[in-house]
Amino acid sequence: MATTKQEQFINDLVQFYRNRGFSTAHPSKFIARLNGKNVDLSELYARVLELGGSYKVNQFNLWDDIYFKLFQTNFIGANFAVALRQIYNRYLLQYEKSCNGNFSNDQWNEDDDDDK
């Protein structure tokens, strides 16, 4: 059976976290919801990278833009932008740091480091 892009991405995330000692990492733990909608983590990751990575998205406060691209709606409030950033930090930030070493360590804010 063929896997979708999203399924392959989640499998990659699971392997990434298992390789770093999170033996309980499982695809079922990589399900995120925001405002009653599933968040496609592979698309979220791609959108953040399109804008230069999480450092730049945070620096220029672009979480509203990413929310719009993910859900095709203009309805957003500060809480949704914060929640989207938290989802990214929880599931994807460490992966970005490891896979996209285009930022120096001093560019990461200490509040970005939500442990998995």
Automatic annotation (TrEMBL):
Keyword entries, A-Z: Nucleus, Transcription, Transcription regulation
Top-level lineage group: Eukaryota
Molecular function via GO: DNA binding
Gene3D superfamilies recorded: ARID DNA-binding domain
A Pfam family hit: ARID
Domain called ARID: residue spans: 3-100
The protein, known as: AT-rich interactive domain-containing protein 2-like protein
Source organism per UniProt: Euroglyphus maynei
